[in-house]
Amino acid sequence: MNNKIALITGAYKGIGLEIGRQLGRQGVTVLLGARSLAKAEEAAAGLQAENIHAYGVELDVTNANHIGSVASHIEKEYGKLDILINNAGTYLDHLGNNVDVMRSTFEVNVFGAQALTEAVLHLLKASPEGRVVNQSSILGSVGTILSDEMYGSRSVPAYTTSKAALNAWTAQLSIALRDTNIKVNACHPGWVKTDMGGEHAPMEVHEGAETAVSLATLQADGPTGGFFHRGEALPW
Ligand SMILES: NC(=O)c1ccc[n+]([C@@H]2O[C@H](COP(=O)([O-])OP(=O)(O)OC[C@H]3O[C@@H](n4cnc5c(N)ncnc54)[C@H](OP(=O)(O)O)[C@@H]3O)[C@@H](O)[C@H]2O)c1
């Protein structure tokens, strides 16, 4: 076990849970955030059975009370946070192409990530090597979604604009923190078999977690302010 602490949002299933497993196997203590405390604790119990130091926390990233409670809990228990993975994400475009869907999507994918990061920033600064990973998507790459190969992905305006905004905010945050020990990067997990990715996705969940895990464990000479998939820099 090392003494690193990680907080992962949207982590009771899918890529988030697998990120917790892979970080936990490296000895990191992982806090699994979920809207439902029962689901978070059940997921943590599953990882504990694999000898991982995992704990569930109630964390709807759109809920300021949850965010405040989790930040206070981490401060009291650990006094620092080494890794924050803003993994929680929502895909609501099937509900329609309108401003309500856009707002609801941004609440989770953009404002939720920002609010949580702001609330724990002092704890990341207390770490000798803070790492923030924003779970984005290749669909947030504006140039890529205009390409012919992505033609089928053009009719998801809320999801794509939210991930593009998350990417731009990643760049901004990395600039704001460039004189600190904190590295901030955006991640494309790949098209992964999860409830969101669907059964036809080509990548398994353990593969989908790998990019976020590598960005969460970057060495001091690693990049900041980038957008990556499996070690490759992606176009914004
Ligand atoms: N799978 C892919 O192919 C793919 C590709 C590119 C990017 N991504 C990104 O990867 C991330 C993980 O997705 P996934 O594929 O693992 O899908 P998933 O299994 O559906 O996981 C999404 C997670 O986000 C949580 N979430 C949604 N709204 C939340 C909120 N307000 N507060 C806290 N948690 C919330 C969900 O919890 P509930 O069940 O409670 O809603 C769920 O745990 C997302 O950001 C997604 O956009 C996935």
Task: Count up the helices.
Answer: 8
CATH topology: Rossmann fold
CATH level 4 superfamily: NAD(P)-binding Rossmann-like Domain
Rounded to an integer in angstroms, the radius of gyration calculated over CA atoms is 17 Å
Beta-strand segment tally: 8
Textual characterization of the structure:
By secondary structure, the protein is of the alpha/beta class. The chain has one domain: Rossmann fold, CATH 3.40.50.720. Helices cover 42% and strands 14% of the residues. The protein has helices at 14-25, 37-48, 64-77, 99-125, 142-145, 157-176, 205-208, 210-216, and strands at residues 5-8, 29-34, 54-58, 83-86, 131-135, 183-187, 227-229, 232-233. An 8-stranded mixed β-sheet has the order 3-2-1-4-5-6-7-8, sandwiched between helices. The protein is globular, with a radius of gyration of 17 Å. The model has no long low-confidence stretch (mean pLDDT 96). NADP nicotinamide-adenine-dinucleotide phosphate binds next to α1 and α4. The site of NADP nicotinamide-adenine-dinucleotide phosphate (NAP) has 28 residues, from α1 and α4.
What's the helix and strand layout?
Elements: E1 5-8, H1 14-25, E2 29-34, H2 37-48, E3 54-58, H3 64-77, E4 83-86, H4 99-125, E5 131-135, H5 142-145, H6 157-176, E6 183-187, H7 205-208, H8 210-216, E7 227-229, E8 232-233
Parallel strand pairs: 1-2, 1-4, 2-3, 4-5, 5-6, 6-7
Antiparallel strand pairs: 7-8
Helix pairs in contact: 3-4, 4-6
